[in-house]
Amino acid sequence: MVISWQLWALGAALFAAVTAVLSKLGLQGIDPNLATLLRTLVVAVVLSALLLFSGQLQALQLQALPRRSLLALALAGLATGLSWLCYFQALRQGPVAAVASIDKLSVLLVAVLAALWLGEQLSPAGWIGVLLMGAGAALVAWP
Q1: Cα angle for residues 123, 124, 125 (degrees, 5° grid)
Q2: Separation in Å, CA 80 to CA 29, 76, 88, 104
Q3: Cβ atoms within 10 A of the Cβ of 56, count?
């Protein structure tokens, strides 16, 4: 059974919401940078186990990966780490709904960067939707 990308995206949104609330709870009495490390370790262990048990983590496969893909993924990993560090610092200081709303301004930034770097295009209605999402995030985050 093939699951559509839309269902995967809804799952990502659901788990991101749960992550935000649990992270806010987990930050009580813990340095945000240490919390980010612990979260990252859990992600690494779970994904490693998933790949090992599914047979997808094999040395020959890893050696054959395109260098450009590896560079892009390494830079994406760096950006993820920086994003998580910033996110946890913000969660430590601010209300989770406001922090998550500002974090979701990434939707607006993704649309702009995808157009600039990847040549992807949104329809005029799509751009209006992106701008409305940005406005909504601002309304939630700033009273």
Answers
A1: 90
A2: 24, 6, 12, 14
A3: 9
Name the DSSP letter for residue 142: -
pLDDT at 143: 73
Report the sign of the C-alpha dihedral through residues 103, 117, 11, 132, in that order: positive
Question: Rounded to whole angstroms, how far apart are CA atoms 109 and 30?
Answer: 30
- Domain ranges in the chain? 5-95, 104-143
Q: Are 97 and 104 in contact (CB under 8 A)?
A: no
State the DSSP string of 54-114: HT---HHHHHTS-HHHHHHHHHHHHHHHHHHHHHHHHHHHS-HHHHHHHHTTHHHHHHHHI
- Whether the CA torsion 106, 118, 9, 27 is positive or negative: it is negative
| pLDDT, tens only, 17-73 | 999 999 999 999 999 999 999 999 999 999 999 998 988 877 667 778 899 999 999
Residue where the block lists tokens 């919390």: 35
